[in-house]
Structure formats: C-alpha cells, structure tokens
C-alpha cells in the first residue's frame, strides 16, 4: 500500500500486445485506473479490463512497447479513470487521452467525473425535441437532426465523410441558445487531423468547441478512450452547464477495430468478422449517453460517423449501429460520381425523430409535407431513370421526363453545396420548393392546396407557356 488508496505490485506476469497481466493481486476491481512505472522511470497509464481471482488484465493507454516484465511497478488507484470537467475544455485542442496539444496548460476543472460514465435513468429522460440546424440542406430538409438524438453517418471508403463531419461541427446551431460542439477524431491520419484543426479553428477560437484528436499512429487503446472522454466532457457541459452539446465522432469503425485488436490480445473467442461478442453492448454504452434530462435545460446530441468496409451495410459496425440509433444518413457512390457534395442518398437516409424537431412551432409549417413530397418524388424519379435505361429517354412520357428534370435539379440545386456554405433553413426550404415545382401540380398530391397556392411555380408565373 502506497497511501491515498494506491496499491503497488511488482508481479508483472506477461506482456501481450497492449495488454499487461499482473498476478498476486488482492482487492483490485474492474475498470480501475492504473499507473505503470517502468524500470527507467517512465510512467504510463492503464485501466483494468478483467479480474480473475488474483490475476488482473490491464490495457495500457500508451502501449507496451519497450516495456519489460521485470522492474515494472504497477499501481492500482482503487477508482475508475477520472478527468476534470467544466468550461475549461472549451477552445482547447487535446489528444485522444485529453492531454493538451495546443501549447496551453493541462485542462483543469473544479469537478472530476469518471470517463466510463454513469447510466442515465430512463425515467429521468425527456424525449428528444427541437432541431439542431446543421446548415446542410439535405440534412436539415429531409433528415432533421433533433436535440438529444443519435443520428449516424454511414460512408464508404474514399468518400468525404470527414469533410461533412467537420462541416457539421463548424456550422451547427440551435437558434441562439447556449451551444457548443465536442469533436472526437478517432484513428485519423495526420493530414486529416490537420484538416480538422484548420476547419474548426474559428469555432474553437470562439470558445464553442472541444477538439480531441487521436491519430492512427497513437496507441490503439487510446482510440477506445477518445469517445468516452468526449461524452464525459459533453455530459457535464450539457447537464451541469445548461448547454446544448453536439458530439461528432469520426471514425467509429476505427474504434471498433481497436476493440477487435484488444479482444484478440486478450484471447477472447471472436464473434462475427472477428469482433468481440460484446460489440453491440459496448457501442450502446456510448450512443445511449445522449439525450435530455427532465428539469435540466441542456441536451447531448450525437452524430457518429463510420465507414462501411467494402460498402457493406451489413458489416457488424454499421449493422449494430443502425439497431441502436434513431436513423441514418447514408452516402452514395453514385452521387459522389455525379460531383455532388455532400453525396447523400436521400431515399436511403432517415431520421426517425424528425417529427419531434420539425414542423409547426419548430421549423416551418410546410417543412414536413414538403419533405414527404420530395421523398415520394425521388422514389418515382428513380423508377423512371431505371425505365429510361431500358427503353431510352425518348420513349418516356412528358411527365416522366419532368421527373428526370426534377431528379437532376434536386441533386444540383438542393443537395449540392460548398463545404464551407452554411444555409439558413428558410433558404433550404425555398430551394426545395423551386425544385419540387418542376413537377406538374397534378403530381404534387402530398402537398395541401393552401401550400401550393402560397408557393406558386415561379417559372409558370413568369411564362404561362413554361413546362
């Protein structure tokens, strides 16, 4: 015993990848924070993954490179890993372990919180409500993000998911209420980490952003810690600080791959695609930390971004994420090939809580019926495009050709926008009206007559013979 609750052991039995096995222990519990002192005086840190009688399995955050079983001192703290929380994180840039990399002092705070987080009693939850405006038309119009929601982005390798994640983090707002963003980059290349810092510099300088950057050459264990740090910071800023907090985490596939690597080092029996059998519950322990709490003004909203290996949506990471979350935004290789950014497949994308955050009193009265009509028209346009490939566009009816014109206008005028362009919601919905009005009024059966009268076809007004 070394005072203050710390327990010291020198009996390191085995080093296995990022894992240290210590034997002869007593009174050590799961998830305890550990300090490891090497023979040369260097200090590393870890967490207890498993305890079996007198043996503890520890994951080392900095990895076990250059470590030796002899002369290594392992100190158990008697408590879980805790970090300072509070407004001191705002405006800071840190690595995946929460250590400052912006040249400033270590982050400090009056309170400390466990990184693993405490379960939120379902009885205390308020349902998600009211929108988070991302400034991105295809999201705000058709898959509205709601405060307290978890809405993932499913991308394909090589598509600009990091660009979209940074754009959302840079320009999201909640209409004048206290708001901030926590951005967690997981397994990024140094070029991607530099890009994120550049794009988010303005919001960081304004004290509205916490930036955590874990790079691909950092120890694998750090990737498992980064999203938990981000959510711990966000929970305090939201539920104690009264802010609406948006947490953007990219790339969650890198997080899951780190889990797989650690699981293999522990010798666990693998499940599907060699991922551990507890992948679902582990992802749920992260995603379910979002929400709103009764009697408190803040909220935590999560946008996890992940790549689908091989474009396979049935891969365990997107598959399980889809079960836990409330919808998905799916990227399209075909839209990317057409030069559209962001390359979102609107028909495959869905926000199950959109009705909680859009419509009368929240966005605009015409928002929901307009979104429904756009999606219905897109489905018809896709059928027409497939038909045109079989019989040729010349054989299509005039109405069918109008659907193809609508489909092109939807991608070119509504979805496509610059990565640095933040569109107001009114501007987005007005663009949507101009796009849908390319169809004959007889096709707009999901829009009430009073809305059609309030948004006439401007081309027809200008030229009675148009169309």
Automatic annotation (TrEMBL):
Family: Belongs to the ATPase alpha/beta chains family.
PANTHER family reported in the protein's UniProt record: V-TYPE PROTON ATPASE SUBUNIT B (PTHR43389:SF4)
Keyword Ion transport belongs to the record: yes
Function as written in the Swiss-Prot or TrEMBL entry: Produces ATP from ADP in the presence of a proton gradient across the membrane. The V-type beta chain is a regulatory subunit.
Pfam families: ATP-synt_ab (PF00006), ATP-synt_ab_N (PF02874), ATP-synt_VA_C (PF22919)
ATP synthase A/B type C-terminal domain sequence ranges: 357-452
Keyword terms, alphabetized: ATP synthesis, Hydrogen ion transport, Ion transport, Transport
ATPase F1/V1/A1 complex alpha/beta subunit nucleotide-binding domain ranges (all copies): 135-351
ATPase F1/V1/A1 complex alpha/beta subunit N-terminal domain sequence ranges: 17-78
Keyword Ion transport set for record: yes
Highest rank taxon of the organism: Bacteria
Annotated protein name in UniProt: V-type ATP synthase beta chain
InterPro entries: ATP-synt_VA_C, ATPase_F1/V1/A1_a/bsu_N, ATPase_F1/V1/A1_a/bsu_nucl-bd, P-loop_NTPase, V-ATPase_su_B/beta
């Amino acid at each position: 015993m070394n005072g203050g609750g710390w327990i010291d052991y020198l009996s390191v039995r085995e080093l296995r990848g990022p894992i240290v096995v210590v034997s002869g222990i007593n009174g050590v519990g799961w998830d305890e924070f550990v300090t490891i002192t090497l023979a040369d005086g260097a200090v590393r840190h870890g967490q207890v993954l498993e305890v079996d009688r007198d043996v503890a399995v520890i994951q080392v955050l900095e990895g076990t490179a250059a470590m030796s079983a002899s002369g290594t001192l392992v100190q158990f703290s008697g408590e879980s890993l805790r970090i300072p929380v509070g407004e001191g994180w705002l405006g800071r840039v840190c690595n995946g372990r929460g250590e400052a990399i912006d040249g400033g002092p270590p982050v400090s705070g009056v309170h400390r919180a466990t990184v693993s987080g405490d379960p939120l009693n379902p009885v205390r939850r308020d349902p998600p409500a009211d929108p988070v405006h991302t400034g991105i038309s295809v999201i705000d119009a058709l898959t509205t993000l709601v405060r307290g929601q978890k809405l993932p982005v499913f991308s394909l390798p090589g598509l600009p998911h990091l660009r979209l994640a940074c754009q959302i983090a840079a320009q999201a707002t909640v209409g004048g209420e206290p708001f901030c963003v926590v951005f967690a980059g997981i397994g990024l290349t140094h070029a991607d980490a530099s890009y994120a810092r550049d794009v988010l510099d303005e919001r960081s300088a304004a004290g509205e952003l916490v930036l955590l950057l874990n790079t691909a050459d950092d120890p694998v264990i750090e990737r498992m810690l980064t999203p938990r740090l981000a959510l711990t910071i966000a929970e305090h800023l939201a539920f104690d600080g009264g802010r609406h907090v948006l947490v953007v985490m990219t790339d969650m596939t890198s997080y899951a791959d780190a889990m797989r690597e650690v699981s293999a080092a522990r010798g666990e029996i693998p499940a599907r695609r060699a991922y551990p059998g507890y992948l679902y519950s582990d992802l749920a322990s992260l995603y379910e930390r979002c929400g709103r709490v009764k009697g408190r003004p803040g909220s935590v909203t999560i946008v996890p971004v992940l790549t689908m290996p091989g474009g396979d949506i049935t891969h365990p990471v997107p598959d399980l994420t889809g079960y836990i979350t409330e919808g998905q935004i799916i990227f399209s290789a075909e839209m990317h090939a057409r030069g559209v950014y962001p390359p979102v497949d609107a028909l495959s994308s869905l926000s199950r809580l959109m009705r909680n955050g859009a419509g009368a009193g929240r966005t605009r009265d015409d928002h929901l019926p307009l979104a429904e009509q756009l999606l219905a028209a897109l489905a018809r346009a896709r059928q027409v495009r497939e038909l045109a490939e079989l019989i040729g566009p010349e054989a299509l009816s005039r109405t069918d050709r109008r659907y193809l014109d609508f489909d092109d206008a939807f991608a070119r005028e509504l979805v496509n926008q610059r990565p640095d362009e933040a569109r107001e919601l009114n501007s987005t919905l007005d663009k949507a009206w101009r796009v849908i009005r390319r169809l004959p009024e007889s096709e707009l059966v999901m829009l009430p007559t009073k809305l059609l009268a309030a948004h006439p076809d401007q081309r027809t007004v200008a030229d009675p013979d148009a169309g």
